[in-house]
Amino acid sequence: MIRSLFIFIYLLAALVGRTYASTTAIEGNADGFRGKVVRLSVYSDLVSGRTEVVATALIGQEGHFKLYARLSDTMAAILSIGSRKSNFILVAGEMYTCTIDGSSDSIGQQATPNAILELKVNFTNLKEDDPNSVLSRFTGLSENFLYTHSAALAANRGKPVYDSLVSLIRKEFTVAEGSFTGIYIYYRMARIEDMVSRWPANRRFSKFLADKPILYNHPGYMDYFNDFFENYLTTKSRDLSFTSLDIPINELGSLSALTDSLGKDKLLVNEQVRELVMIKNLGKLFHDKRFSQSSIIRMLDLVRQNSKFPVHRTIAGNILFQLTHLSKGSNAPVFSLTAVDHTEKTLEDYRGKWVYVGFFTTWCEICLPEMKVIASLKEKYGDYVEFISICCDEDPISLTYYLAGNNNFKWTFFPLTNSQEILDNYEVTAYPLFVLIDPAGKIYQYPAFKPSEHLDELLKSLKF
Q1: Measuring CA to CA, how many Å separate 387 from each of 142, 257, 334, 381, 454?
Q2: If 0-12 CB within 10 Å is exposed, 13-18 middle and 19+ buried, where does residue 12 land?
Q3: What is the dihedral of CA 251, 257, 258, 260, to 10 degrees?
Q4: 382: left (phi over 0), alpha (psi -120 to 50) or beta
Q5: Is the domain covering 16-125 a CATH 1.10.3470 domain?
Q6: What's domain 336-461's superfamily in CATH?
Q7: Packing angle, helices 255-262 and 293-306, rounded to 10
Q8: Segments making up each domain of the chain, as ranges
Q9: Pairing of β 121-123 and β 95-100
Q10: For 393, how many CA atoms within 13 A lie in the half-sphere containing its CB?
Q11: How many Cα neighbours within 13 Å face the side chain of 146?
Q12: DSSP of 96-162, one letter per residue?
């Protein structure tokens, strides 16, 4: 009876709030980012991790902004300005107010080429039971507790430590078991229990995942699910062998054969779980040289078109996009920017020439030597190749000073300004990043060779 009630609560949590969308608003001040664009994004799905922008606003000259979005569920969200991001939980229908730190210290976080820049957001009107308030307290308390008892954990005395933490959490937090916050804490505690108990996979699966609905939009649940089934088909399954994957993928190229083969795994008897695990792992197998990429693409496309589970069609489509949208021969994402000489350019303007695009920042120490190599390559191949550099600094004026100090850089430079979507479209997560685009506007190499590596040889091999 208790088990049935538990499952009912999970089903209710998975369904409540998805029928009717309501307006969610975020209003705030970001004095240090006047004239910038602030964006609100949510996850299209929590398996691929692909995001979609649901609202944007220009931060006014007084530092004020308002964002509105129609949402139908409580979900993980991202507030971003430029490359700075802040993750939080967005409750559908709520009205949030916040301040965003734009101090010089905050804006000066640019330490390394691949630094993840934090957007420091302070929500000023959170209710006591708001998920952000509760989970912030839970995270701080649990992490501090585990740190304090790290010696006992190292000495394999984890079970008493975990039991003490459970008692503390129950004392400090009174949340409904089936609520968003309750489920989040449940699966965070599950990860800690896994760490200290060292249970085998089948026991962990039975306790935390078996006979429970898949909460696709819940970050706590999906973090656990994704971690549990990460590389499951190749490294974790006790019932599957290489042959179980090799024959369906490489020899037969058959989705139905792969589905049947995976059914031999005792944890994948449920068809919904099995298909989701298959989709997730196919995305990983694509990069495994032992498996046919073309077969994997066909299988994912069949799931995208035909799965009986609508959310699986979305996830398969997102993974397909991630695997193919910057692959050789795919259309290069278009862009429109204003160069330092104030001329507006689009990628289409360069049709008919090879285009070598570089994303960089003026504070990136390893970028400058690459720029100096481009200067020599420009002299050698400038008649056939358009060299473009996109400066991703937060303050466009820094590019002006940068070029003044390097007056031999005689190719096209663009400040990024408020065109953050370019970084998203080209998946720029570290600097420098280079892309080679062919005369037809299609990706030829991504990421492309750095100027200091084999770019000279590659350009020499092209038939201009």
Answers
A1: 51, 48, 16, 9, 16
A2: exposed
A3: -150
A4: alpha
A5: no
A6: Glutaredoxin (3.40.30.10)
A7: 90
A8: 16-125, 133-228, 234-324, 336-461
A9: antiparallel
A10: 19
A11: 17
A12: EEEEE---HHHHT---STT--PBP-EEESS--TT-HHHHHHHHHHHHHHHHHHTHHHHHTT-HHHHH
- In degrees, rounded to 5, the angle at the alpha carbon of residue 312 between the alpha carbons of residues 284 and 252 is 55
- Are the C-beta atoms of 119 and 79 separated by less than 8 Å? yes
Q: Which amino acid is at 433?
A: L
- Per CATH, 16-125 and 336-461 having the same topology is answered no
Q: Determine how β-strand 412-415 pairs with β-strand 385-391.
A: parallel
Name residue 100's beta-bridge partners.
121
**Amino acid letter at 438?**
D
Please give the chain's pLDDT, 464 residues, in tens: 444 444 444 544 444 444 468 999 999 999 999 999 999 999 999 999 999 999 999 999 999 999 999 998 899 999 999 888 999 999 999 999 999 997 655 454 444 445 557 899 999 999 999 999 999 999 999 999 999 998 888 777 888 999 999 999 999 998 888 899 999 999 999 999 998 888 999 999 999 999 999 999 999 999 999 999 999 999 999 999 999 999 999 999 999 999 999 999 999 999 999 999 999 999 999 999 999 999 999 999 999 999 999 999 999 999 999 999 999 999 999 999 999 999 999 999 999 999 999 999 999 999 999 999 999 999 999 999 999 999 999 888 999 999 999 999 999 999 988 888 999 999 998 999 999 999 999 999 999 999 999 999 999 999 77
Provide the token pair at 50.
């692909």
